[in-house]
Design goal:
The chain is an alpha+beta fold. It is 33% helix and 33% strand. A five-stranded mixed beta sheet has the order 1-5-2-3-4, with helices on both faces.
Length: 112
């Protein structure tokens, strides 16, 4: 394993524990490749305002979670359809739902 990256299943387990320790809820919506699958996060607060987070490369070489899609409150089904299409394109990817207060703060803590 290059770059010292944790295996995906361990990172997912840590994300779930962190969300629960923060008073939130976490669930695996799509289980990916155990060792190296990409991890996608969908966050919401009390089941609303869903956003998809994906790791994006930065100039300093780090890959941090960044919002790539937001749910349209007028057409919430389009977000779910997008997630289905996105995961169909990456069969090795993990999709984790996090229902946490202040998703930006929670995600920022992951980068620390």
């Amino acid at each position: 394993m290059s770059g010292g990256r944790l295996p995906a299943h361990l990172e997912v387990a840590a994300l779930i524990r962190a969300a629960e320790a923060d008073g939130g809820f976490a669930a695996v919506l799509s289980k990916g490749e155990r060792e190296g699958g990409a991890i996608y996060l969908t966050t919401c607060e009390r089941g609303r305002n869903s956003r998809l987070w994906e790791r994006m490369p930065r100039l300093d070489g780090r890959r941090i979670f960044t919002v790539s899609r937001e749910q349209d409150t007028e057409k919430p089904h389009e977000y779910d359809e997008y997630l289905q299409r996105r995961m169909a394109r990456d069969e090795d990817g993990w999709l984790i739902e996090l229902d946490v207060v202040d998703a930006e703060r929670f995600i920022a803590q992951l980068a620390d």
